[in-house]
Amino acid sequence: MTIATFSQKRNVFLKDFTGFAQALTEGAMQELLLTPKPGLVDRADSGSHPDLSFEIMQTSVNLLPVYYQELGDCCLSGGQVTQLRTVGLAAEKRMFDACGSNTHKGYIFLSGLALLAHIMYEDLRTGLKELSAEFFKGYLPDSNGSEARRMYGTGGIIKESLNGLPSVFEAGIPALSVNPHYALACIMERAEDSTSLHRCGQSGLETVKRDGKTLRTLIENKQSTAEWLDSRNEYYKRMNLTMGGCADLLALSFALIKII
User: Fold this and answer.
1) 82 has pLDDT over 80
2) How far apart are CA 247 and CA 36, in angstroms?
């Protein structure tokens, strides 16, 4: 099924759109609220993002429904991939203008992709794969993540998307049955986080993966994690290390577990 045929599913879209869009917004808020998170903005501090704050990230989350509405309107009018890409770029600019930073840039792409796949396909992961293949055909976005992927030869979010987001469906969502920090740990251990590579190179990504394994083991052994997480946050801040890709995948896990 192509995006051009989407208008044929108008009634289904109208029925599902509001609930799914709300779940996507709530997922982003749940990720923001989870505290502590090494190198990421949460209720305790700004992690490795001195230009951001909890309040700024709240503002960014609150802008997501505008994007989803515009995306829905474009789809209902039979928008093509290039038009849908324009909607996403407009949402990025809106967030940058309001927040002074790219804030949820990765989540704009992932959540928009998930919204389209949910409405257009019977199987969500099939939709994610096929839409990703169409989206990235002859197009590679210009971003810090793209630069890191070229430099270090990793797949990053493009590989994740083309494979139907395994870090969400095979790590994040199943691990949420334990607790949110366990889901974060499993995603950290699995994902190729381009922001970690951009900030600190291969050693940064290896640190995130290693810390994911440590956090997962602590939780599985029913040990306290608060002190360890706080200490790792301080380390990440000293190293200027962060993991925005993991945060986006966790937010999407929070959202999709409400739907599937």
Assistant:
1) no
2) 12
Distance CA 21, CA 139 (A): 26
CA distance 108 to 91: 7
Taking alpha carbons only, the member of 120, 187, 195, 134 closest to residue 162 is 134
Q: pTM score > 0.85 for this model?
A: yes
Helix (H) or strand (E) holding 231: helix 226-239
Query: What is the model's pLDDT at position 152?
Result: 39
Q: For residues 231-238, give the mean pLDDT.
A: 98
Range scoring the smallest mean pLDDT among 4-8, 30-34, 66-70, 120-124: 4-8
- The candidate with the shortest Cα–Cα distance to 116, out of 57, 154, 75, 175, is 75
Give the closest residue to 229 by CA, choosing from 106, 29, 53, 45. 45
CA dihedral 60→65→66→67, nearest 10 degrees, is 80
d(CA 121, CA 245): 25
